[in-house]
Amino acid sequence: MNHGLTDEQLALEEAVKRFLSETLTLNRLRTFVASDCAFDKPLLQGLNQMGVPGLMTPQEFGGSGLGFMEAALVAEQFGAAAAPAPFISTVVMATQALLLTTNEDARKEWLPRIASGQVRMAVGFASPLSGQIGENHAVMIAGKLNAKLTAMLEADGATHLLVFTADGSAAIVDVCDVRFETQASVDMTRRIASVTINDAAAQPLSFQLGDELAAVQKVLDAGRLAIACDTLGAAQTMLTRSVAYATERQQFGRQIGSFQGVKYMLADMVTQLEPCRSLAWHSAMLMNQGSTDAHVSVLQTRAHVADVAREVSRMAIEVHGGVGFTDMLGMPFWFRRIAFNRQILGTPERCREEAALAQGWV
Length: 362
Fold this sequence. Notes:
Elements: H1 7-23, H2 26-34, H3 41-50, H4 68-81, H5 88-100, H6 104-115, E1 121-125, E2 137-141, E3 144-153, E4 160-164, E5 170-174, E6 178-183, E7 192-201, E8 203-205, H7 212-248, E9 250-251, E10 254-255, H8 260-289, H9 294-320, H10 331-343, H11 348-358
Parallel strand pairs: 1-4
Antiparallel strand pairs: 2-3, 3-7, 4-5, 5-8, 6-7, 9-10
């Protein structure tokens, strides 16, 4: 079996990579961080023109009809560029939820609007579904939604929220009916939000009777895979920049990359990181196939990539020496993104526990 990328996938990856690298310079990122914006609007407009919001939306609803493999490739490039733009919640998780719903009217209403970039939909989960720290609750009664959700990814700047209750049912609510408390996160390019919803009119999403929690699981798997790939991209950038720095920086009349200790660190970073890409691609392929092995594979991928990326980011900072801790070369953008991704939608420890439960080990 050929596990390599197709020409179309390579073209997509290269197009997104080129656009992000040309658009998101370090100065652009610094300017964004100093602003009070939820996301980089010109960047978002460019991504909309490229059709990124409709990546996973079927063609009949105005999207590209692509799968998890393509989403994984794009997510990696978002992480590589530390892109301050919504992707994981709207393009991956919300789209997946709408594809799983039995409500055909909801698909017709929301998928075209997501694909066009008109709607940005953050996704939240009541405890204990997502594995987040803290007590999140959400209750839907007689078409009215009441909820208290913390640490919501991409809620800042969203137009709508998709909220899952503890029993696996879901509802869509307009942000006009939501009270937000936006908070800075360790990732300077992404803020989180706590939201309070009181008796807000909401559109319910129904799933196959008796299969509601399985639908939630698939939505979470999609988000966790995207987060793992975003982390992979950030770690790859830290490695690439470390290699470049080691060949330019000189001490005692020699490039520091010629020193054995630095060589070993760079080699360790490569050997740890490269298998993560194969692991992520394998999980994406299983998701595309609807395999029963996909759930455990995604959980293991999410946990392993988070641990490897933490080590890669640590060694990358060490290669740069003292300057790596400063903003001079911009390394904290990717270091912080990796740290943030490690916590969102369940820590590696939580993901491994879920994988053990799924396999009947505990």
